[in-house]
Each structure stands twice: as structure tokens, then as C-alpha cells.
Amino acid sequence: TFGYNPDRPILRNITFAADPGQTIALVGPTGSGKTSITALAHRFYEVQDGSITIDGQDIRDVTQDSIGEVMGMVLQEPFLFSQSVLENVRYNTSYATREEGVQACTVIGAHDFIMELEDGYDTFLSERGSNLSLGQRQLLSFARAIVADPRILILDEATANIDSHTEILIQNALRNLLQGRTAIVIAHRLSTIRGADKIIVLQEGQIIEVGKHDELMDRDGLYSHLYNMNFAAMDAPVE
Q: How far is CA 68 from CA 77, 179, 239, in A?
């Protein structure tokens, strides 16, 4: 249970587990508590009641730095710095070699567009990466996460309009990024939701439904309604 104002909880009796390697998709209307759950998982805030544990250890008993060593975050709006492409990819993992940075970009599918830039990996990015498209910035943020190699990934998928080619690149990148990691994803893309091991449906700070895509569609509840209203129009482009 949690509230930014302790007298007004916005998450109530939230209980779920993510097994190693599982992808957990958080789905729900705006304001249902999805982002608050991810913020609590990284201990940006403390829970009021209950606990959050990693491998059975309460995250309140460890340092923020040690959580950061095992948990990575990729936000909806990728934050890039006024540095080179490579320095942005190696952000927070400056010990990584150039080869590791290039390999991460190759795995994610960003290598080709980077090599088309004026100075390749040494191209200096404008403030917030404004000289790149949103899709390109997102791919770089995925590559950054690959270099950091977190065991747990918190991902808030971007919903901005991007062309179908970039959409395919991002979907392929997501598959590579999630491979072998435990992930909690605020999911907007239908392909991610369908592929999740567990979908948690939230409404007004409470868990309303839990299951896989087909199970939840059969129940004809809130998930089915959200899917028919929103996600069906966002189906994945065919490769």
C-alpha cells in the first residue's frame, strides 16, 4: 500500500511476484498506478504497508546503489546527454569498452543508423538527442540497458507515433532486451502484452485481473474492454 500523501493511498493491497526471467506487463487506464509501482520497485519512494523484496531481501535493507546494480530502467522519454553517441550508450557504465558499446547497438539494431551519422559513434548529440528521431533515441536507450546488463529491467514503453519500419526495429530490440531478464513493463505495445508471462490489470490503484492475454480476453472484463478500445488498433506490423 502506498500514497504520495500517506493519508490518501493510491496503491492498495498490491501483491504479485515475478519469477526469474519472467516479463510482467502492467496494463490499465491513466492514473491506475502503473508508474507508481515501478517507482517503488526502484525504491524512489518507500511503501507504507507491506514490502518489496528481491530474492527474498527487503529493498529497504539495502542501498540505492546496490539496487541500481541489478535493476535498470528504460523510460518512455529516453534521456540523452550532449555527448557522443558512444558516451550516451556507455552512460553509467563508463568501464565498458567501445567494442561492447558497438556490440550492444548491433544487438539492438541501432548500428546501421549510427554508422550513417556524420561521425558514426563519435557523433555529438544535441541537447536531449534532438538531432535524432524518437525511435532512434529509444533504440539508444535500449542499447544503454544492454551495456549495463541488469538482471531486472523496468520498462515504460513509448507510445509516440513512429513509422512502421522503426516500430519493427523497436519490437525486435525489445525481444533482445528482455531475453533472459526479469522485466516489469508498463506495456503499450500489443506485441509486448501478448508475449508477457503475466499481465496485471490495474484500476484506481488496485489489481483487478491477472492472467495471460487469452485468459483475460475470455473473461470479458476490464482487460478485454481496454484491448478492444485501445490495443486492437495498435497491432504489430507484419515483418
A: 19, 19, 35
Q: How far apart are CA 227 and CA 84, in angstroms?
A: 40
The Cα–Cα gap between 101 and 118 comes to 18
Compute CA 98 distance to the chain's CA centroid, rounded to the nearest angstrom: 25
First to last CA, the chain: 42
Q: Note the pTM of the prediction, 2 decimals.
A: 0.86
Kindly report, residue by residue over 66-123, the tens digit of the pLDDT: 998 899 888 877 889 999 999 999 987 878 999 999 999 999 899 999 999 999 999 9
Burial class (CB in 10 A: 0-12, 13-18, 19+), 145: buried
- Distance in angstroms (rounded) separating the CA atoms of residues 137 and 130: 9
SS3 234: helix
User: What contacts 6, CB < 8 A, 6 or more positions away?
Assistant: 48
d(C-alpha 209, C-alpha 195), whole Å: 17
List pLDDT tens digits, range 157-174. 766 656 777 778 888 888
H-type helices in 97-163, by residue range? Answer: 98-108, 111-115, 134-148
DSSP code, position 220: T
d(CA 56, CA 193): 27
